[in-house]
Amino acid sequence: MTEREAPSGGFRALRMDGVSRRFGTTTALDRLDLTIEGGEFIALLGPSGCGKSTALNCLAGLLPLTGGGIWLDDERIDGLPPEKRGFGMVFQNYALFPHLTVRKNVGFGLAIRGVSRQETARRVDEALALVELTDQAHKLPGKLSGGQQQRVAIARAIVIRPRLVLMDEPLSNLDAKLRLQMRTEIRKLHQSLGLTTVYVTHDQEEALALADRVVVLRGGVVEQIGSPEEVYTYPRNTYVAGFMGYRNLLRLPVTARDGDKVTLADPGLRLTGTPQEEFTGDTAVAAIRPEDFTVGAVESNSIRLSVEVAEFHGREMAVEGVTESGRVIHFRVPDRLHPGEKIELGVPSPRVLIFSDNLPEPE
To answer: Which residues form the ABC transporter domain (predicted)?
Structure first.
């Protein structure tokens, strides 16, 4: 598709202003404020039940709001039915019509919009070419692989030239290799067609790879909004840190404070890091990624432990160890290790993020 033929009917900004959705006494989405610029790729990220699919369905018009409003530039749209919003949607389960060919599935949205037969044929041809399914146009969905069915669903969404594309965990049913391939294809289509995309996922790697901005949700509430780099490097709290790969969240006694550094310690363990928020109290939480450890003490940061489990992951070992006080540490090292080995680890102090102690108490 040429630049001249890029989807029309775009917008400057879509604003979700205090958007809420309740189901009886349960609040699935609580006062979500989010502005999406035209051309942005936004990922809604979080575990099951965090409100991300609810937010998407509110945008699509599949769920009415119980609070707030949705604005497209100066037009309020939350009262419009789905077919009047001009959005395209890609579902997790593809939602293809099994009795219609690929071509008819892709053209369905155009047909119900009254687009002429000649124009429909041209746009369907373009969409199928974009997702590389021209030679599958005559087949029924049941004759296609999972990846091909997902491509049909994407083609059906973009053929109507939507103002906004909504994707609800579109890759979760694919195997690992296909997920990587389709992830790249989705990003390429977003860029080449000048789309605006809202993408729901529970996979933090997927969100980081695809999005211009990531919205991390928990219990219907936004925990952090930022670029992939911001959310990955500077998580706002222990919840975001844990979700973004800081697998080691260690509640430890505070033993020293020196300017912008805090030191935590325990038998066989000493860590100095950088506070990410203001806090008081005698304990704090150190967040460290497994890949940030090195063998041997670093900057006086030291953890002595015994290897419990060591898994071979190609160029590195994924290891679980236990300190003398019984704390479990997850780390990755290039050297082969074996259960029972004693080892000392270090980590640069900038890689140790210190948070207030708001972890749930262990059961």
So the answer is: 14-244
